[in-house]
Write a structure and sequence with these properties.
The complex is a heterodimer of chains A (606) and B (416). Chain A contains 26 helices and five strands. By secondary structure, chain A is mostly helical. Chain A has a three-stranded mixed beta sheet. Chain A has a two-stranded antiparallel sheet with strand order 4-5. Chain A is elongated and about 105 Å long. With 416 residues, chain B is mainly alpha-helical. Classes of the chains: A mainly alpha (606), B mainly alpha (416).
Chain lengths: 606, 416
């Protein structure tokens, strides 16, 4: 991954002649004065590439925001048309709509838009890491139509994941149209992904963090600005058209008693175990359904729809994204038995929808399951420990973050998402406790995150951001060795240095300056200086003025490798006193360190 | 030429112009779609709200709950906040009707957090707290509601505040907290508009908490505005009776009894008021301490009272199966033998009766007229007989006995 947007071209292209950019006869008609104005305008438009990148991020954000607004409207209108406006639709509709709509969904996905199947997150990662950021516009169109149909008809999926992919797709299309370099097209897709997700979630910070945590994996300064700009622009558009109401009306949080935190730790355990159940069921069902004959792919969404419809007869809340029911759970609208039933049925329904190949997102179902589990734990705590229980809505809210941390394995996003949705910093403590517990449980029993499992099931080998984050970084201190031989001082005379090093085998030798500077000198160079009559001169007058790079023990080996270049070895010095030599590092030392780690990994089976 | 066209197509200016054009087009299209979408949601929210409200009115609380929940889903982003409050309030009422006060509380608290000074929300929360028996919360929310922010013009706001205060008073009276209720009522009474019904209502509540003088003042205010106001006349009569002003009681209740009966009532006065009127009339007819009475009139009243009280005591003794001493022949004109026990125990029927018998010789109008001092002694014995009869046989049944007991009680209270 690059540290920032690479130059659009290796060297700035000379501006194309104005005539080339305008229709023939243009200036003949409007005169020379207009030509001068045009030239000036054009010159002002010729901005630096990084500025263009940021401007493009804003444009991507605007387009993504518009697309997501239309997408959400399409989902709602589809749902109103197919299922009616009642919160609990009639039984015939509940059964028939998801079953029958499953047929066109499967047909469109298999025949016309094969790239829309699967998770938008993994699709976007594939685009970034395999296809150089290429996402065809047909994927955006297909995702829009098919997901609106599927979610609107009651499939247990959410709009965020498709929004993310649509944003990435729009960014990719714009990037290609602007003839961005391959590197920049690859970078621009995550920018669009953040914009799409931010608009869908109405939470720019969580979206930015998610893309960093799950899609690009690093805090790259160059691309971060673009991602933030795109996310903010898209949220502005979304709020302009759909209102600034948050996704949920969060009841205010207040900690009643410090023992209440025990309840949140329990919620973390419940959330971690629920995440495990969800992941295991999903990775169990998906390959099995995929192994069925290909012709059944056309029927699997219908079959999933039928089962979801049957569940919906008793629990219509399980159908669709279910945001309104999360809101109701936050306001204590369900008894704990219903909450647990809803959470478990949602796990089943979502696993069915995803495994049957229906495109759609798992964010909303994850939040749904978390909200229900959280509210159930809250209700239990209210019942058994009423003196130590805060508002029920807080448990539901923290539950959302907990499932996010446990199932999607994005710990930072999960914390900030809750803070952003609630707008209440005081909930941080319960969130941190619950999310950490859930994350640790999930990671202990399911080492590979769900998105990585899904991509591996599809035969792809994309970089796992969690694994990347947790890879141990080798540092200079892991590879350096103790300095041997004589260290010359810059104040020593050449003659003295030659006499003192005559018997030594080491070559070259380190020279230490009073200023903390270091240099390497070869014995042959010393002898040559002596022979040319410079024996009485101090070394600092004889040695070339070039500065030898120096290392510190905490430097990653990657940095050391870059600094080593042609030097046979480099001094490793103390950070507080550059004259104090701690060790030396050569290319062989670095390679030896990598070999040791590699051998250890093989030994431990990693 | 083709290359030139291709360059022109990818020139920054072209891209910028096309992007702006596409962006403008997309904005316009999205704006149209969003407008239609919001309109549809508003319509749906409104129709579900109407259906839910109708269901709630008709007592179909389960259906109302479902309708209102649906209405709220559509109202969330497409109905202004103040109107959404109405949705949530209706929903909270439906939840209460469905015996789900906790959920109603959650909704209301959520709204309250956003508008803690909303009087309407505080009132609903107070009602909910009353339902759930949370006394301190009820009082807190009632107080918030009274001093909160109401919608409407000044007159409407005053009326809503007053209604809330009266509701709060009814709650306090129901809990037996008369002093607290009285303070609120006094505050309400001080700012009542010229409305006889309102003065009568507040007066009635003041009477309930035992503030009869303040209650009477309110009834009199009502009568000053409408002198034939039946409810005010009756209430003023009852308050006057409670205050011991029998003359005023007879005046108010007498006037009320002459009015046409209230719709739905056969008589102008209900039985309790009619009884009070009769008792007060009897008091005025039997009381020897009335101003302006001549000695013969006082003597006649005291003899009449003595006969009535003695008959009641004898009836009581008979009912209890207590044997009473025989009357002793008294010499006419003699003041009667002094009592063996001038102050017998009030519940000792035979002792009181013995005392009464000793006065029997004096209980003649002529003797009493000759010696007016005996009137007071006789009246005292009458009182003792009424107290004894009441203590052993319960409250008096006859109007005259009640009047005599009332006279005796008043006399006892007036003694130092």
């Amino acid at each position: 991954m690059s540290d920032g947007p690479a130059p659009l071209t290796e060297s700035p292209q000379p501006a194309a002649p104005v005539e080339a950019a305008c229709p023939p006869g243009f200036f003949r008609r409007f005169g020379v004065r207009s030509q001068a104005l045009f030239e000036r305008a054009r010159a002002s438009l010729s901005m630096r590439e990084d500025n263009l990148f940021l401007l493009l991020a804003v444009v991507i954000g605007l387009f993504s925001g518009l697309a997501v607004v239309c997408f959400r409207i399409a989902i709602d209108l589809t749902s109103l048309t197919l299922l009616g406006s009642a919160a609990a639709p009639g039984p015939l509709r509940v059964i028939l709509v998801p079953t029958l709509v499953g047929l066109p969904v499967a047909f469109l996905a298999l025949r016309f838009f094969p790239r829309v199947r699967g998770s938008g997150v993994t699709q976007t990662k594939s685009a970034v890491y395999i296809y150089d950021g290429y996402i065809p516009f047909s994927t955006v169109i297909g995702k829009f139509i098919i997901c609106a149909l599927a979610i609107g008809s009651g499939q247990s999926l959410g709009p965020e994941d498709p929004s993310l992919q649509m944003g990435a797709g729009i960014a990719s299309v714009l990037g290609r149209w602007l003839r961005l370099s391959r590197e920049n097209v690859r970078l621009i897709a995550p920018v669009g992904a953040a914009a799409g997700l931010a608009a869908a979630f109405n939470s720019p910070v969580a979206a930015v963090l998610f893309v960093i945590e799950e899609v690009i994996g690093t805090w790259s300064g160059g691309v971060l600005g673009a991602i933030v700009l795109a996310a903010v622009s898209s949220v502005v558009v979304e709020r302009f058209f759909l209102g600034s109401e948050p996704l949920f009306q969060i009841p205010p949080y207040r900690m009643v008693h410090s023992l209440e935190l025990v309840g949140y730790a329990v919620l973390g355990v419940v959330g971690g175990l629920s995440s495990l159940v969800f992941v295991k069921l999903l990775v169990f069902m998906r390959p099995r359904l995929k192994a069925w004959p290909r012709w059944t792919y056309y029927l699997q969404p219908s079959l999933a729809g039928l089962i979801i419809g049957i569940i919906g007869l008793k629990f219509p809340q399980v159908m669709g994204a279910g945001y309104q029911y999360m809101d109701q759970a936050m306001h204590g609208q369900f008894v704990w038995q219903v909450l647990v039933a809803l959470a478990l049925l949602k796990v089943l329904a979502t696993s069915l929808s995803v495994s049957s190949g229906v495109p759609g997102g798992m964010f909303a179902p994850t939040l749904f399951i978390g909200a229900m589990m959280g509210a159930a734990v809250g209700a239990a705590q209210h019942r058994f420990f009423p003196g130590f229980s805060g508002p029920l809505g807080s448990y539901a809210l923290v539950g959302m973050g907990t499932l996010f941390a446990g199932f999607l394995r994005v710990p930072m996003t999960s914390v900030f998402m809750v803070l952003e949705i609630s707008g209440n910093y005081s909930i941080i403590l319960p969130v941190l406790i619950s999310n950490t517990v859930a994350y640790l449980i999930s990671r202990s029993f399911q080492p590979t995150p769900v998105f990585d499992l899904l991509t591996r099931q599809d035969g792809l080998d994309l970089p796992s951001m969690e694994e990347t984050r947790e890879q141990s970084v080798l540092r200079v201190e892991n590879a350096m060795r103790k300095p041997v031989g004589l260290i010359l001082k810059a104040s020593d005379t050449v003659a003295d240095a030659v006499s003192r090093t005559a018997e030594m085998t080491e070559d070259p030798l380190l020279v230490s300056y009073e200023t903390g500077r270091w240099a390497l000198v070869r014995k042959a160079a010393l002898e040559s200086a002596l022979n040319s009559g410079q024996g009485d001169l101090p070394l600092l007058e004889v040695l070339p003025s070039g500065r030898l790079p120096r290392l510190h023990p905490d430097h990653p080996l990657d940095v050391a490798l870059r600094l080593l270049r042609d030097a046979p070895f480099l001094p490793v010095v103390h950070r507080a006193d550059a004259r104090r030599l701690i060790g030396i590092l050569s290319l062989d030392d670095v390679l030896a360190a990598y070999r040791r780690v590699s051998a250890a990994n093989v030994g431990s089976g990693v | 030429m083709a290359a030139l066209r291709r360059d022109w197509l990818h020139a920054p200016e072209t891209i910028l112009l096309v992007t702006l054009a596409v962006l403008a087009g997309a904005f316009a299209t999205t704006a149209l779609a969003a407008r239609a979408y919001h309109n549809r949601r508003r319509v749906l929210a409104e129709s579900w709200l109407q259906q839910g409200s109708a269901d709630l009115r008709d007592g179909h609380s389960a259906a109302a709950l479902s309708d209102l929940q649906t209405a709220l889903i559509y109202a969330r982003q497409d109905v202004p906040d103040d109107q959404q409050q109405a949705y949530s309030l209706d929903l909270a009422q439906a939840l209460v009707a469905n015996h789900r006060p906790d959920e109603a509380h959650a909704y209301l608290i959520d709204l309250w957090e956003r508008a803690p000074d909303s009087a309407k929300l505080n009132l609903e929360l107070a009602r909910l707290a009353v339902n759930t028996g949370d006394d301190s919360a009820a009082k807190r929310y009632y107080a918030n509601a009274i001093y909160g922010i109401w919608d409407g013009n000044a007159q409407q706001i005053q009326q809503k505040q007053r209604d809330t205060q009266l509701e709060f008073c009814r709650y306090l009276i129901g809990r037996g907290e008369r002093t607290a209720a009285n303070s609120v009522l006094v505050a309400v009474a001080g700012s009542l508009p010229p409305d006889p019904a309102l003065h009568t209502q507040v007066g009635g509540m003041l009477a309930e908490v035992g503030a009869n003088a303040q209650a009477l003042a309110q009834f009199q205010e009502a009568l000053a505005l409408d002198r034939r106001n039946h409810a005010a006349l009756v209430s003023a009569g009852l308050a006057s009776f409670a205050l011991g002003d029998d003359r005023a009681a007879v005046r108010y209740l007498g006037q009320a009894s002459r009015e046409r009966p209230q719709p739905g009532q056969a008589e102008a006065l209900d039985p309790a008021a009619a009884r009070d009127l009769a008792v007060a009339t009897a008091v005025l007819a039997l009381d020897t301490s009335q101003a302006g009475l001549t000695t013969p009139e006082r003597a006649m009243r005291s003899v009449q009272s003595y006969q009535l009280a003695k008959a009641r005591l004898e009836g009581c003794a008979n009912k209890l199966g207590v044997s009473l001493p025989k009357p002793v022949a008294a010499t006419a004109g003699s003041p009667g033998a002094p009592a063996t026990n001038a102050n017998p125990a009030p519940d000792d029927v035979p002792a009181v009766y013995t005392q009464a018998l000793k006065m029997q010789g004096s209980a003649r109008e002529a003797d009493l007229t000759r010696d007016p001092r005996l009137i007071d002694s006789l009246v005292k014995v009458v009182g003792q007989m009424e107290f004894a009869a009441s203590a052993n046989c319960g409250p008096p049944v006859e109007v005259e006995d009640e009047a005599l007991l009332r006279i005796a009680q008043r006399a006892a209270a007036a003694q130092p």
